[in-house]
Write a structure and sequence with these properties.
- The structure is a single chain.
- The protein has a single domain (17-229), classed as Alpha-Beta Barrel (TIM Barrel), CATH 3.20.20.10.
- 35% of the residues lie in helices and 16% in strands.
- The chain has helices at 17-35, 53-61, 72-78, 99-102, 115-127, 154-161, 186-203, 218-223, and strands at residues 43-44, 46-47, 66-69, 87-90, 106-112, 132-138, 167-174, 209-211, 228-229.
- The strands form 2 sheets. It has a 7-stranded parallel beta sheet with strand order 2-3-4-5-6-7-8. The protein has a two-stranded parallel ribbon with strand order 1-9.
- Helix 6 links the parallel strand 6 and strand 7.
- Helix 6 crosses helix 7.
- The two termini are 28 Å apart.
- The structure holds pyridoxal-5'-phosphate.
- Pyridoxal-5'-phosphate is lined by residues 47, 49, 70, 91-92, 175, 214-215, 230-234.
Length: 240
């Protein structure tokens, strides 16, 4: 399904959206087979922040359906200009006063990072008669520059979660400290999975989803159990 308006091969010789998506899928499949996992267990949220509707459309045409945004304002302007069949996730920090702004488009919030945010979301969902799937973001390295719960807070949050009628807490997300060497992310991905396994055994929440891994470390994340990976730059043209 290609039409003449979509740049299959870009002018400057960079790979096309098709080529980038296929290359990513091959690497996902290879990582899955190393880990003894089935490729369908790993889904891709293409993080399109800073990229425009044309870039999104090219990737959509190549077959990508799930996209992630990290800023409310940017998402609100971009999404109406993109193909209508796409699914949109919020992957970045959501300010508490912007909760209502994501409800029209967001089907999964990867970055629920405070109790107050979760409570406001539940109330806003109730008011608009819908529900929302959320992941709890965990700041495993305790970086002050990043949002997220401490690992120790997760059991307490899950105790509260039983009271949220409109929120489905379906898993955990993490964003480890950036290193060139993806192996340095492994310990964090492993800890997120162990935290999930422990929480699953003690909370009664199934928590099937683990959102972890970006352009530089998604293979390691898959080996450690990721069910959602969040590649951005790898799938799009280089950020300006
Ligand atoms: C920007 C971003 C990504 C994608 O990062 P890349 O390095 O471009 O793959 C993934 N997750 C979150 C939360 C982000 O903010």
């Amino acid at each position: 399904m290609k039409n003449g308006h979509t740049a299959i091969r870009e002018q400057d010789g960079e790979p096309s959206a098709d080529a980038r998506l296929n290359a990513l899928r091959e690497r996902v499949t290879a990582a899955c087979s190393r880990a003894g996992r089935a490729p369908h267990e790993v889904r891709i949220a293409a993080v399109s922040k800073t990229f425009g509707p044309n870039d999104v459309s090219a990737l959509a045409q190549a077959g990508q359906t799930v996209f992630g945004e990290s800023r409310v304002q940017e998402a609100r302007q971009k999404i109406p200009l993109c193909p209508g069949h796409l699914e949109w996730h919020m992957v970045g920090h959501l300010q508490r006063n912007k909760v209502k702004d994501i409800l029209p488009w967001c089907t999964l919030l990867h970055s629920a990072d405070s109790l107050e945010l979760l409570e406001r979301l539940d109330t806003a969902c109730e008011a608009s008669g819908r529900s929302l799937a959320v992941l709890l973001e965990v700041n495993l390295a305790g970086e002050s520059s990043k949002y997220g719960f401490a690992a120790e807070e997760i059991p307490g949050i899950l105790e509260r979660a039983g009271a949220w009628i409109r929120l489905d807490v379906i898993g955990l997300m993490t964003l480890p400290p950036f290193h060139e060497d993806p192996e340095r992310s492994r310990q964090y991905f492993r800890r997120l999975r162990e935290l999930r396994d422990h929480a699953r055994a003690t909370s009664g929440f199934d928590l099937p989803e683990l959102s972890m891994g970006m352009s530089n470390d998604f293979e390691v994340a898959i080996e450690e159990g990721a069910t959602w990976i969040r590649p951005g730059t790898l799938l799009f043209r280089r950020r300006a």
